[in-house]
Design brief:
Blueprint: H1 17-27, H2 32-41, H3 55-70, H4 72-85, H5 92-115
Helix pairs in contact: 1-2, 3-5, 4-5
Length: 126
């Protein structure tokens, strides 16, 4: 009788780079293990499937992370508030450009969050 919680040792198979690339493409968003099981046993694996992130998702995630690190939106928001409160004088055109840049950055962030299928932080618009 097998012990609960223990799995049999994994099966190893060597593939060429081209074969592995072809398998990844055929698997789509499924993990390679889930895809291979499905093909071998001609039925979906009863195990829980974790979605394999595409390279595009990884790049979008990196962009979102970098955008957050720059704090551009926060800095532009502070400039806009300072302009509105009269802390320093700028032309109406410069103030409008600052506000537009802030809004553009906010929109980029929202689109990245949506593209990644993430939920916006509390208090943010979707």
């Amino acid at each position: 009788m097998a012990d609960k919680g223990k799995y049999p040792p994994p099966y190893s198979l060597r593939l060429t780079f081209e074969e592995r690339k072809q398998l990844r493409q055929q698997a789509g968003t499924k993990t390679l293990s889930a895809y291979i099981r499905e093909r071998l046993f001609e039925q979906p694996s009863p195990r829980r499937h974790y979605r394999q992130l595409s390279e595009d998702h990884a790049v979008l995630g990196e962009l979102l992370e970098e955008l957050g690190k720059t704090r551009l939106s926060n800095n532009l928001n502070q400039l806009a508030k300072a302009c509105n409160s009269g802390a320093f004088e700028v032309s109406d055109e410069a103030e409008a450009a600052i506000i537009e840049a802030r809004d553009d950055i906010k929109r980029m962030r929202e689109e990245l969050v949506a593209a990644l299928g993430l939920k916006p932080k509390t208090g943010e618009t979707p």
